[in-house]
Amino acid sequence: MWRDNSAIDFVRDAGGPRGVHLLQWVKDVDAYYRVIVDRGAKVPEEPADRPYGIREFGVRDINGVGIVFGQDIEHA
Q1: Helix (H) / strand (E) containing 48
Q2: What is the pTM of this model?
């Protein structure tokens, strides 16, 4: 479900529904990564190019909800 630069991705695997990921599009994913790390966020991986055409990184909030920040690779 997309709206402007945000989406909700309903996660499902062989066992059935298992939650949601929140997706947030940003203009410069590397710059945003640096901002939140400088503010003390614990981010397990740096931004990386994915085979599906997106440069992204993800975090989990205190409730375990996955939040992914990304941008199209051609704009990276």
Answers
A1: strand 48-49
A2: 0.78
